[in-house]
Amino acid sequence: MLTFILRRTLIMIPQLLLLSLIIFMLAKAMPGDAVTTSFMSNPNVTAEQMEKAREKLGLNDPWYVQYGKWVGKAVQGDFGMSYVHKQPVTKLLAGRVSNTLLLSFFILLVSYIIAIPLGIIAGRWTDSWADKMIVTYNYFSFATPTFVFALLMLFGFSFILGWFPIGGSVDIRIEVGTWDYIVSKARHLFLPVMTGAILSTYATIQYLRNDIIDTKLKDFVKTARAKGVPEGKVYTRHILRNSMLPIAAFLGYEITGLIAGSVFIEWIFSYPGLGKLFIESLGGRDFTVVTALVMISGTAAIVGTMLSDIILSIVDPRIRID
Amino acid sequence: MVVLNKKELLAKERLNNPSFIKTIWREIKNDKMALGSLILLMLILLVAYSSPLFVDQTQLNRVNFFNNWKPPSATNWLGTDDGGRDVFGQLLLGTRNSFTIGVSVTLIAGVMGLTYGLISGFYGGLVDNIMMRIVDFLMVLPALMFIIVFVVIVPQYNVFSFILIMSSFAWFGKARLIRSKGLAERELDYINASKTLGTPSWKIMFFEMFPNLSSLVIVNMTLTLAGNIGLETGLTFLGFGLPAGTPSLGTLIAFARNPDIMQNKWWVWLPAALLILVMMLCINYVGQAIKRASDARQRLA
Fold this sequence. Notes:
CATH architecture of the largest domain in chain A: Orthogonal Bundle
Order of helices and strands of chain A: HHHHEEHHHHHHHHHHH
Structural class of chain A: mainly alpha
Oligomer: heterodimer
CATH superfamily of chain B: MetI-like
Number of domains of chain A: 2
Strand content of chain A: under 5%
Shape of chain B: globular
CATH topology of chain B: MetI-like fold
CATH class of the largest domain in chain A: Mainly Alpha
Distance between the termini of chain B: 29 Å
CATH topology of the largest domain in chain A: MetI-like fold
Helix content of chain B: over 70%
Radius of gyration of chain A: 25 Å
CATH superfamily of the largest domain in chain A: MetI-like
Number of strands of chain A: 2
Shape of chain A: globular
Number of strands of chain B: 0
Structural class of chain B: mainly alpha
């Protein structure tokens, strides 16, 4: 057990190194560097002055020296300056990260609230009309592209019916901490959360349904029935206890899509989170922010996958490979 | 006795299923929804690909500001856009472009994944271990973000570089799938026999192993085709997809970013959004039928 966790954690080190190297090379390939972007608005700067500034910032050092410095700073949470927003990238991200976390948290929560009962119903009463409807729903949620669904939701509920605001995360001129603030926030969150949640139920429903169908024919379930355990208890105590554990372990994998997964939703609902910041920064050529966002979301993905692998191996010993 | 039964069954199976294509067709014929999807999809594609016959492309690109934002009428079936261009014509052109690019990405990614997976599965051992650790790493990366970053930094960006960028992030899953089947396949007698006879490895991989995995590849490619079309239109919608001048379904949908257009000029973006939805559902339905056909236990027919 311990060796598995240790090995799985150690694999992370080369992965993180490789990730940072790839992103560093991408950052170097992005047009313009710190000097050109910061002096762009000043036409009086001569080429010599720019060259001097480059020398001072270490931009003429060999790439491995630059890489070392960059990684050293990134580890301490220093990603440089955003040239569009005129403030440190870390500060800029800190202002947006809570919005994205809030959105992802509710998407995850609602998707489980929808998916778990549906998965159980579909698995328990296979081939019933309810099962057929759930399978059809699941098929739709799998096949529908996020941005098309998000646009249709926005069009239908905000524009035609007018039930929800068309964008943003909270109405302006509302004081933080008041009841109105919470209501306004909830109204802004509702559509993006429902869009994300409905489209991410697929894996959970599919997994639960298949697992319950497999498990309900197993010997220990037959034994429980033969003992006279009521049917409801057979499910809650015997079958679900087996099937639900891996679902809890998949949580880590959900972290992997934290920023990337919400790019479309945040963009369409004009929700001020990291995904929207990513697209805006690319449009505004604010590459320090882009680099930081890719690095953070890559790291989150690697760490999330590791967590899920470890939790899964604890929950399900069959996965453990030493 | 058991062995003999199995052989008999296999012989019977072969008699009943002369080829994979025929099995697919029988499966689709027996599933009304899949048959309907296939016919609808064929119809959409037929109209889209034959559009040059009845839509004048230069006429379509001509900007006429006196005619902009016209609602649907007899002359412009789906109205006109900001430059007075016919939306219906652009819809057909966009469908053609989006589908062509989706197919190209699927094919290129298929070849990449197939080659990688076959090599990894055929050699096994250390080679397989190293190659799979690389794929593990690549699969974790936030692909969407990387694709967008590449689109922005690639110099001389055009349709081909876009297809290449998308393909290079689309083959990981395929490589893994083919590798796992390949690993099982390499233990079988026909591979060993071929090795003993001195057949070169690449010949065994592509002419002996591959045919046995072909149904798997076909199933996987149909199912990922829908995803690739969705990704292309999504990227174009965000503004990081097809370069301007090559209309895609995403280009029309991108108009919806403007609240006024979304609400009052719905004819520009809504048909394209619905068309994508219909195409995704159809391709997936056909894909599911093909998947069932490839697995004897799941077959309906």
